[in-house]
C-alpha cells in the first residue's frame, strides 16, 4: 500500500479493508440489455451492483450500489461539443448526493486509448486535484483481456483484474483483487467505466 500504512478512501473509508480482498465480478444475464454486473466477496455475498444504461435508461450514466441496494456512486460520461470533438473519453464519479452543476466529482477518468492505443495509458485523478500531481492512478495492461492493474503514481498496485476464462470459458466472470487500504467502491467504479468503454455489460 502506498505510504506503507493507513486507509485511502475515495468514496468512503467504509469500503476500505485492512486485508487483501478478492472480489468476483459476474455479468448479468445477456437478456438484460446493458444491465451491468454484480460483485460478490469470497463468501458469495453481493457487495456491489453496477447498473448500466439498460436499467437506468440513459447512456453515459453508471450507478454503483452497495450490497443492500443503496446507491453510493454515480458516474457520468462528460458530454458537450468539445468532448464530442475530443480524442478521448472523460468520465466523472460523484457521491450519492450528486447534483449536476453544483458538486465537484470525487474522481475523473481519462481514456485516450481510442487515439493512442500504444502510448497513452488510461489515467484517473482524485479530486480535488493536486497542482503537483495531475493524476493519481493509471491502468496498466488490458481490461478487455482481463489482465490489468490499477496502479498509483508511485507504481504500487492498488487492484488487479484477473481473468477466469481458463476455468469458466467466459469473460463474463472474473476476479478483482484489491490491496489492503484501497477503496473497493472506487475500484469497482473504475471497473464499471472500463466495462462501458469496452462495450461490455453496462453499454447498450
UniProtKB/TrEMBL annotation:
Tell me where the signal peptide lies.
none
Naturally occurring in which organism (per UniProt): Vanilla planifolia (Vanilla)
PANTHER family, per database record? PROTEIN LURP-ONE-RELATED 6, PTHR31087
Q: What is this protein called?
A: Protein LURP-one-related 6
Of which family is this protein a member?
Belongs to the LOR family.
